[in-house]
Amino acid sequence: MKQKILIVEDEFIVANDLRIMLEKAGYKVCGIAPSVVKALELIGTKEPDWILLDIFLQGDKTGIDLAGQLTEMGIPFIYISANTNQGILEAAKATLPYGFLVKPFREKDLMVMLDIARYRHEQNLKYNQHEEPSLQKQIEHITEKKESSADRLKQVAAALYPVVPFQFLWITKSNPRVTTKETYIIRRDDGKFNTPNNESLLKEANISSRDFKAWNATAIVHNGKSIFNGYDFRKLRMENPWIQALSDHYKLESAIVCEIERDGETFQFVFFHHLSDLYTKVHTGIVNQFKKSWEQVLDKIIYSKDAVTETPLAIEISLEKPFIKTEQPPEPKDFNGIVGNSKLLHAAFKKLELVAPDDTSVLILGESGTGKEKIAQTIHKLSPRKNKPLITVNCAALPLTLIESELFGHEKGSFTGANEKRIGKFEQADGGSIFLDEIGELPLEAQVKLLRVLQEKEIERLGGNYTKKINVRIITATNRNLEKEVAEGRFRLDLYYRLNVFPIELPALRQRKEDIPVLTQYFIDKYGKKGSSNVSAISTAALNELQDYDWPGNIRELEHLIERTMVLTEGDTITAIELPGVTTPAVFNQDNQFKIKTMEEMEREHILSILKMCKGKIFGPGGAAEILNIPSTTLNSKIKKLGIKFEFVK
């Protein structure tokens, strides 16, 4: 039976072209809707299997608004939009579509995207994994943590910011009015967040308590309006002295208001930004779509009766010997050295277990040091291909002139220096799996050839005159935002769809700090067994330091730090931790004048702090190059360029 597709697009020419393409390919177009209202009408009468959804539509509602309802109805959808703005892409991504096509696109792109989207939907139905949007799950996870209210609010802000950018967030109870429980989240210039209380905020903004009480006596009166840009924001300033005072001090130029009704009481979430025209209907749709998340923030963080005021550690300390005891759930299966008990990590493990037995292509997403290679190894280990080779390729380390030869091989004499035949990585992996790490670093020319391998399942050696069929499972990983790379023309759209069949996202360590105690003990046990140290425990104070640090290098950085600290520790307990210094972008010079650091100064200080932490070691395991995730040759060049000498490292 033909699948029915509803096109939700307000440009008739574009919609008609889509209809022609789809019908030519055998799909049945059951209607064209220019607005959310019309789309809902057609959904009720036509019952489409799929929806192609534009973001900006006629009327007050956007495709983002409709997306939330489609998820509730269980109807899969794909975005089609001419807008490649990164903020719009992030907002769209938060609704978990099955694809995103950027206009204009080719008929082939549409068909490839539909094929991949249909397959992904079948997998989601099979495994029942297409649940609530990931941002909502992430915020729910944060609100459940046993950490201080301030720490959890900062984590919520960090998760929210890519989807709804803001410089200042004001959370207030507006009906009945209560100003004693005001909550503020401020994004600093370095990208981190502060959560000042009333007293510190008034002091920082130079506002008297008397003025605060007079100005903040009423909440924002918005008469149904949610977006305040340009003139609307200036008018809001004139009507509300408190908003005027905040915007003057923090240079705020626009706002979005979201109201939450809870048990007869009204709360307002007010997002502010420096730019005067930033917010659109898309952001309103996202803010409203995650009202459940805002309710959790209110109930479990801001107005919780048992809110934690200090950051506790999930440990018990013995009076005789300060060592870590963690109450852990049953141990998961052997995940190849990846340990942890956080919900975010176990969600990734669940996906891994589901996809490992299949031949599905897997895209592993996550920052450097989160364990992407170990996840790839585990997928191969749990698959029917486990007795065949797993070939690992670091795409970032491939020389530009030798990429084709490395991946696909070459014949003798095919180029200068090709003195013998070479078997490429794909051919070496025949029957097994190939792991392409840092796939986002692959140049466009190589992406074309990789796409052919994925589509045709065959390779041709450089200089050869025949093709060879191969049977390889593709596992890829990247720390880049591939949607952004596609939008900016650095990564092929068709290749992205081919690779992104089954994504597994690994959380950063700062998102799962509750795992730091068990990870720390794991590394202490691991290196203690090697006999190089007598350390078997860590003190409460030292563990506190680990949990207060943000871990830009993630688990890899934690492991190397624990290994080095054990070597330097006398006795059986780690009592002190030498963490990398915090680099600030602004300082005062000798004349007490404010000075902004240059990028070169910041880079020099950061490299110097890592070198000091590594005791000057550059190469090999635990060296500065590995922690910074750059080639040692590149690091040496930077050290020379920045004038860093060995005596500075001591």
TrEMBL record:
It comes from Pedobacter rhizosphaerae. Residues 4-118 form the Response regulatory domain. It comes from the Bacteria. The keyword Transcription regulation applies. One of its GO terms (biological process) is regulation of DNA-templated transcription. Transmembrane segments: none annotated. This is Response regulator receiver domain-containing protein. GO terms for molecular function: ATP binding; DNA binding. InterPro entries: AAA+_ATPase, AAA_lid_NorR, CheY-like_superfamily, Homeodomain-like_sf, P-loop_NTPase, Sig_transdc_resp-reg_receiver, Sigma_54_int, Sigma_54_int_dom_ATP-bd_1. The modification 4-aspartylphosphate is found at D54. Residues 338-567 form the Sigma-54 factor interaction domain. Keywords: ATP-binding, DNA-binding, Nucleotide-binding, Phosphoprotein, Transcription, Transcription regulation. PROSITE patterns: RESPONSE_REGULATORY, SIGMA54_INTERACT_1, SIGMA54_INTERACT_2, SIGMA54_INTERACT_3, SIGMA54_INTERACT_4.
